[in-house]
């Protein structure tokens, strides 16, 4: 299935590195997991936070104009999800930018410990690029090692982040009775931060940069009233090269097919290896509303498609909420991928 995707044309590509000054709490999507924290933030969460920061600085009128652009077919910005970034200050080399392992990618041929190889979920972008181009000589295990969910350089001697359990107290609104509960937070080690990629229309770049600086002060994720999630922008520069000539697309964001895409997917055969995740969360726009957004099931990062996904900006306003519309950004951010080339390596 091939589709023209004009929204991706005539835009500049950037990579944005974030260094956090405090722990983070990225709530998971199911109700029972809200107290636990992930170590990364999805593109849908990132967009919501950025739009709120945009509104805080520029006001309602300018924010509505910003969101209206997404309905014209030429959105101001398309975001990837955030992933871990490992700085290599000791060697002076470029940071290691981790990407999700594409669905269907088998790394067992490169490692003697099959159990550890099977756990790898994130790889350096340079390794993925070589695999997609059939240029890796089979020496992955000589330069890299499995470390939990990550394939890291052998020079990496510590965990990338630390999880901590924190106690919180909730008061019953009727009886004022107290109840202790626990949440987890994530603290990145000094050499680790998050990064994301974005395709941006030039005329919106300055305002988006400003919104990101405001977001750094406001904080990304949950538990912001405790000072969590504050960050500085470590780098903001053109995206590193990705020289893969493939007909497939590796998904790096949340993706919900547009009406046109769904219609085509229902009527014709299409190729894809994918995983799904739930997207939920609470409304936050100038204060804690305590209202949940509509839950969605979206295609998740690491999915591979035989066509160029587009996606859409979805209205997820809860019933009875009239303050403003609530959106979830499910526009697809992808990189070219080539599964066929990878099958011949190892």
Automatic annotation (TrEMBL):
A matching Pfam family: Csm4_C
**Family of this protein:** Belongs to the CRISPR-associated Csm4 family.
Keywords assigned by UniProt? Answer: Antiviral defense, RNA-binding
Annotated GO MF terms:
RNA binding
Name by which UniProt lists this protein:
CRISPR system Cms protein Csm4
- Indicate yes or no for the key word RNA-binding: yes
Q: Which NCBIfam families match?
A: cas5_csm4 (TIGR01903)
- Source organism (scientific name): Methylomusa anaerophila
Give start and end of each Csm4 C-terminal domain.
246-336
Q: Which BP terms in the Gene Ontology apply to this protein? A: defense response to virus
């Amino acid at each position: 299935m091939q589709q023209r995707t004009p929204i991706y044309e005539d835009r500049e590509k950037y990579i944005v590195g974030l260094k956090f000054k405090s722990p983070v709490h990225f709530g998971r999507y199911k109700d029972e997991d809200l107290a636990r924290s992930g170590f990364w933030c999805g593109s849908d969460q990132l967009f919501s936070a950025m739009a709120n920061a945009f509104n805080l600085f520029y006001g309602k009128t300018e924010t509505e104009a910003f969101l209206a652009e997404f309905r014209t077919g030429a959105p101001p910005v398309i975001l990837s999800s955030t992933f871990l970034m490992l700085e290599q200050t000791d060697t002076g080399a470029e940071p290691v930018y981790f990407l999700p392992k594409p669905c269907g990618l088998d790394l067992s041929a490169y490692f003697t410990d099959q159990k550890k190889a099977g756990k790898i979920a994130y790889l350096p972008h340079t390794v993925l690029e070589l695999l997609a181009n059939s240029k890796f000589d089979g020496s992955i295990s000589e330069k890299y090692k499995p470390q939990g969910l990550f394939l890291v350089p052998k020079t990496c001697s510590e965990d990338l982040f630390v999880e901590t359990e924190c106690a919180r107290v909730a008061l019953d609104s009727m009886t004022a009775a107290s109840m202790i509960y626990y949440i987890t937070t994530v603290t990145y080690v000094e050499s680790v931060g998050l990064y994301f990629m974005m395709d941006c229309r030039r005329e919106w770049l300055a305002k988006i940069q400003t919104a990101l600086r405001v977001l750094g002060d406001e904080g990304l994720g949950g538990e912001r009233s405790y000072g969590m999630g504050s960050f500085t922008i470590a780098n903001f520069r053109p995206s590193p090269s990705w020289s893969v000539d493939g007909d497939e697309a590796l998904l790096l964001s949340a993706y919900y097919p547009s009406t046109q895409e769904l219609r085509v997917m229902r009527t014709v055969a299409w190729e894809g290896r994918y995983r799904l995740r739930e997207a939920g969360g609470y409304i936050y726009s100038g204060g804690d509303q305590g209202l949940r957004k509509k839950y969605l099931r979206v295609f998740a990062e690491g999915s591979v498609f035989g066509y160029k996904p587009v996606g859409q900006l979805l209205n997820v306003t809860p019933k009875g909420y009239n303050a403003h519309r609530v959106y979830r950004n499910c526009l697809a951010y992808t990189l070219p991928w080539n599964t066929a080339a990878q099958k011949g390596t190892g």
